Amino acid sequence: MSSTTRLYMILFPNQALVGSQLEPQDFGRHFISGSSKYYSGKLIFAEIEPSYRHPYFPIEDCLKDMAPHSDGRPKSTKYISTYRVLEHIGFEALLDLYITTPEGHTLKLSAGPYDATHKAGLIRVYAEIAPVSMMVLSDYSFPDFSTFITSPKSKVGAPKMFYTQIDLDIDEFLTSFEANPLAPAPIPDIHPSVLRESVLELRKYVDKHTKGLSLANPLGKVSFRHLRHGFMFAGRSESRFYPLPSLKEIEASHFRFWKTM
After folding, report:
1. By the 8 A CB rule, do 259 and 247 touch?
2. How far from 241 is each of 11, 31, 220, 229, 238, CA to CA, in Å?
């Protein structure tokens, strides 16, 4: 642990900018099990360049209160803002991204290039995480979805968005549904028949590229194993991608995280 103050932007389950003297692994563990504020589930947060300043955030006021406890323990959390946080963070200030399992194991993700290839017209499931929390069906590719969701013309987007993709083979799902309509939902809290009808609607109307699936994001019930590509910070003139390592890489280098992800 260190007495150095760090800035963290929490992206899931809530959204906030906080100051902390805990290192990322300790911060993830504290949020899950060490805080007096009860929470049980996943955590996603990004470290922000400590020198970052924006007039919207009273960061200097926070730093004045970031002193270790009288017994020497570091200050774990000091909230700076819980409103419109992502909107006021420049992507150049983003450092590493961290994802934490409900058991408190944290994996660091570093920004990298997006180089995946995409099949045109393939329908995908996107989980919008912050500042909007929704599930969306779309035939936009992973990077093209960012252009749509941050466009000033979009009625359902925002100037900046943080999202990921749920790994689901739509054709395989449709075949499985026809064979057994009573099978469990492939995505928690979304009824299989709703998913099927949404897919058919999107395929029927060629000018329609998105279809909302749910106003609630069930990411807390979806294993990190079932995410595709990684996480995207999208803006109208900038983006930052954080790729997920393969399951084999995670198992080899972060076994405890892999076992509980």
Report:
1. no
2. 15, 24, 21, 9, 10
Q: What is the pLDDT of residue 34?
A: 66
Q: In this structure, are 171 and 200 located in the same domain?
A: yes
Say how many domains are in the chain: 2
Classify 118 as helix, strand or coil. Answer: coil
Structural element, H or E, at residue 243:
strand 239-243
203-248 pLDDT, tens digit each: 999 899 999 999 888 999 999 999 999 999 999 989 999 999 999 9
Q: Provide the domain limits for residue 175.
A: 124-245
Which residue stretches of 69-204 are H helix? Answer: 142-149, 170-179, 192-204
3-state secondary structure of 179: helix
Residues 97 and 28 in one domain: yes
Q: Could you report the per-residue pLDDT of 24-81, keeping only the tens digit for each?
A: 999 999 988 766 565 678 999 999 999 999 999 999 998 888 888 778 788 899 999 9
